[in-house]
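Exercise 7. Given the encoded structure of a 208-residue chain, write a plausible sequence.
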C-alpha cells in the first residue's frame, strides 16, 4: 500500500508540475499583481479540483463521461472560457512598476475576481473529471473504507498542486524585474493570451 501511495505522489507531482492553464494563470497574475494576489486563483483552482474529484468519487464523473452530448457541452464551455481568458490576457495593459501599497490595494480589490478565474479554469476542463475517474480507482483498496482513502488521495494531490503553483507564483514574482519593461510585458501578455487560446482549442479538439 505504501508503494502505491509513493507512485501516486510521484504521479501527482508530475501531472501538476506540467505547465497548463492553471500554471499560466498563476504566472500571469503573479507578474501582474504579485505572488500574494495569485494565491486567490490558486485557491480557486483548489476548490475546483475538490469539486471535480468529489463528482468523480460519487459516480457522477462516470455519468458525465458516458454522456457524449453532455461531455461535448462541457468541452465547448471550457474551450470558450479559456479563449476568453486568452483574449483578456492579450488585451491586458502593461504594468511597468509595482509598489507594495498599490499591490496590496490590488490584492484587496481583485481577490474575488482572481479566485473566480482560478475556479473557472479548474472547472472548465472536463478532462479533469475523466482523469480523477480513471486515476482514483487505481489507488483505492476495495477491502478498506473508501472515504478515508478518498480524503487521503484528494488532499495529497491538492497539497502538491498548491505547493507547485505557489512555487510558480513566487518564481514569477522574482522574475518580474526582468519583465518590468513595457515591451517585455507586452510580449509576455501576448504569449499568455496565445497559450490560453491554444489550451482552449486543444481541449475542444481532443477525443472524448
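Solution.
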Amino acid at each position: 500500500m505504501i508503494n502505491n501511495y509513493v507512485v501516486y505522489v510521484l504521479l501527482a507531482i508530475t501531472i501538476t508540475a506540467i505547465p497548463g492553464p492553471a500554471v499560466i494563470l498563476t504566472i500571469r497574475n503573479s507578474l501582474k499583481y504579485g505572488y500574494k494576489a495569485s494565491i486567490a486563483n490558486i485557491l480557486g483552482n483548489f476548490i475546483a479540483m475538490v469539486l471535480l474529484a468529489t463528482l468523480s468519487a460519487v459516480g457522477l464523473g462516470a455519468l458525465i463521461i458516458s454522456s457524449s452530448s453532455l461531455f461535448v457541452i462541457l468541452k465547448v464551455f471550457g474551450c470558450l472560457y479559456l479563449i476568453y481568458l486568452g483574449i483578456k490576457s492579450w488585451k491586458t495593459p502593461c504594468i511597468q512598476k509595482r509598489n507594495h501599497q498599490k499591490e496590496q490595494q490590488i490584492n484587496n480589490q481583485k481577490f474575488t475576481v482572481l479566485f473566480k478565474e482560478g475556479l473557472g479554469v479548474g472547472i472548465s476542463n472536463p478532462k479533469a473529471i475523466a482523469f480523477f475517474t480513471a486515476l482514483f480507482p487505481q489507488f483505492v483498496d476495495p477491502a478498506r473504507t473508501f472515504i478515508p482513502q478518498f480524503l487521503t488521495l484528494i488532499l495529497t494531490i491538492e497539497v502538491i498542486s498548491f505547493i507547485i503553483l505557489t512555487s510558480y507564483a513566487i518564481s514569477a514574482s522574482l522574475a518580474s524585474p526582468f519583465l518590468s519593461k513595457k515591451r517585455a510585458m507586452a510580449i509576455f501578455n501576448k504569449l499568455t493570451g496565445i497559450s490560453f487560446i491554444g489550451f482552449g482549442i486543444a481541449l475542444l479538439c481532443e477525443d472524448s
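Remark. Residues 20-205 form one domain. Students should compare their own answers with the one above.
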